[in-house]
């Protein structure tokens, strides 16, 4: 029987104290997954008070929080009395200005990958690392990863948190954990085969590249025993997820996190995949209007603001993530009451303006990934041709595509341009290019190249 038929898939079993998956194990890892809204709110108030006391140990926060008594916090909504913290604040306190404990209590430092500027240093106590591994293990357990899984982590180890962050979660669960690191596809494929890897953590852009390498080696991605993939660190569309699931015949779950809130483990999809649960016993999420900082109603897109509720070494209060999403209204069928956010639409900084229209790369990805002839990668190039803005979308096609006739190419070019126009209200110049011909990056994908003169 082909291996694919025997793959264990994520099961839809709602949480309750006795609920079990078919292997006889509990469907939840932590008691807090059973909490109702009242229990979550009271835990948040307690944690918030404790965090405010701890933050007074740091000059930066002491000044910011002057006049605020931790006991003034009576409900989670009282968080609005605390000022926001921005990336610039964190940069201004680099390297150790935000420590709330003596330096000797710090056992590890991580730093953001600097996709959008100078680094931010985030320091952890031993207790912080324990909490982080715990919440990460909870995420993996929720999507069906169990101690008998072989977990291959294809994320960069080092300052980037996707390596060690996921690693210690998988180890905590008891998986045989392989710190494969990024790239080096041949070795990656050999490890997958030799150790029978069943679960992976991978960047969306790399997951497709890896499948190409498998096919080049004459291997079908479906023939590997992979059954679950944790995919995050950069935005991707639902269309992209479906491609990945079909390609490898595995379940794909969205994983969201950021260095400022430790790293991965902040929000994660459950088996229902209707948004990502934010673990509200660890983080207090808000969604605010980017311009005014006022909360937006559930269902409306705004900027995600996060407060770490448990961190000792470097708690961060009301952090403006720049990530755009919305709270999903209603309850999740999984029974967990931790609030859900929609997949990240992009960073506020990713938005670009063409002919006065605000556009996010994800809007473009959503459209082009629905065309079966479209390959894995694309690039958005912004130019000025002297008359005005030009939006070029370069799209890699499947290998077989160019062997067919020119008429098909021109008609597809036109159809994609029309579909994009109806989504973004600007007519792009669509260029269909050969697979693997666009420039690749080692880490997070770079989708937008802005060549317009800025003066
Ligand atoms: P950097 O900001 O330098 O990339 P991080 O490695 O801390 O540093 O990356 C965190 C950011 O990555 C988030 O703020 C978000 O923009 C993006 N990100 C992380 N996970 C996801 C996800 N699942 N979907 C979309 N974007 C994500
Ligand atoms: Zn759920």
Compact description:
By secondary structure, this protein is of the alpha/beta class.
Explain the overall architecture.
The protein has helices spanning 37-55, 59-64, 87-92, 126-142, 161-173, 185-195, 204-216, 238-248, 361-368, 406-424, and strands spanning 106-111, 121-125, 150-153, 176-178, 199-202, 228-232, 251-257, 264-269, 276-278, 283-288, 302-308, 319-325, 340-341, 346-347, 352-354, 357-359, 374-384, 389-397, 429-433, 448-450. It is α/β, with parallel strands linked by helices. It has 2 domains: 1-349, Rossmann fold; 352-450, GMP Synthetase, Chain A, domain 3 (2-Layer Sandwich). The strands form 5 sheets. The chain has an 8-stranded mixed β-sheet with strand order 4-3-5-6-7-8-9-13, sandwiched between helices. A 4-stranded antiparallel β-sheet has the order 10-11-12-14, with no helix packed on it. Helix 10 links the parallel strand 18 and strand 19 (429-433). It is globular, with a radius of gyration of 23 Å. The mean pLDDT is 93.
Notable characteristics:
single chain; 455 residues; alpha/beta; Rossmann fold; GMP Synthetase, Chain A, domain 3; 2 domains; four-stranded antiparallel β-sheet; 27% helix; globular; binds adenosine-5'-diphosphate; binds zinc ion
Question: How do the strands of the widest beta sheet line up side by side?
Answer: 4-3-5-6-7-8-9-13
The biggest beta sheet reads:
8 strands, mixed
What is the β-strand count? 20
Number of helices: 10
Q: Which percent range describes the beta-strand content?
A: 15-25%
Detail the poorly predicted runs: none
């Amino acid at each position: 029987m082909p291996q694919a038929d025997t793959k264990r898939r994520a099961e839809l079993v709602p949480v309750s104290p006795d609920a079990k998956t078919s292997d006889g194990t509990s469907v939840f890892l932590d008691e807090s997954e059973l909490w109702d809204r009242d229990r979550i709110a009271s835990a948040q108030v307690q944690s918030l008070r404790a965090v405010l006391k701890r933050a007074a140990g740091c000059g930066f926060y002491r000044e910011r929080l002057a006049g605020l008594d931790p006991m003034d916090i009576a409900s989670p909504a009282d968080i609005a009395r605390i000022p926001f913290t921005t990336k610039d604040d964190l940069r201004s306190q680099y390297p150790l200005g935000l420590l709330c404990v003596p330096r000797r209590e710090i056992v590890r430092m991580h730093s953001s990958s600097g996709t959008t500027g100078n680094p931010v240093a985030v320091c952890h106590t031993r207790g912080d690392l324990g909490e982080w591994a715990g919440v990460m293990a909870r995420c993996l357990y929720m999507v069906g990863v169990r101690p008998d899984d072989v977990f291959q982590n294809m994320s960069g180890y080092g300052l980037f948190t996707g390596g060690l962050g996921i690693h210690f979660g998988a180890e905590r669960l008891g998986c045989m954990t392989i710190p494969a690191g990024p790239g080096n596809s041949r070795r990656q494929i050999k490890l997958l085969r030799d150790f029978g890897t069943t679960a992976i953590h991978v960047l969306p852009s790399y997951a497709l590249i890896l499948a190409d390498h498998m096919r080049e080696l004459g291997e079908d991605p479906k023939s590997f025993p992979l059954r679950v993939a944790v995919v995050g660190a950069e935005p991707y569309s639902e269309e992209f997820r479906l491609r990945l699931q079909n390609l490898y015949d595995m379940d794909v779950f969205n994983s969201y996190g950021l260095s400022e809130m430790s790293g991965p483990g902040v929000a994660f999809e459950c088996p229902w995949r209707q948004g990502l649960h934010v673990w509200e016993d660890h983080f207090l999420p808000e969604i605010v209007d980017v311009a005014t900082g006022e909360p937006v109603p559930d269902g409306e897109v705004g900027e995600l603001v996060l407060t770490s509720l448990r961190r000792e070494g470097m708690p961060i209060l009301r952090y403006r993530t720049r990530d755009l999403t919305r709270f999903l209204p209603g309850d999740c069928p999984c029974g967990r009451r931790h609030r859900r956010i929609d997949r990240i639409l992009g960073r506020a900084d990713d938005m670009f303006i063409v002919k006065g229209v605000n556009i996010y790369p994800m809007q473009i990805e959503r459209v082009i990934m629905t065309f079966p002839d479209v390959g894995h990668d694309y690039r958005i190039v912004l130019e000025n041709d002297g008359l005005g803005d030009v939006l070029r979308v370069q799209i890699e096609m499947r290998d077989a595509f160019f062997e067919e006739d020119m008429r098909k190419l021109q008609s597809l070019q036109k159809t994609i341009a029309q579909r994009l126009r109806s989504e973004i209200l600007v007519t792009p110049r669509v260029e269909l290019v050969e697979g693997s011909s666009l420039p690749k990056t080692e880490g997070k994908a770079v989708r937008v190249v802005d060549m317009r003169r800025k003066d």
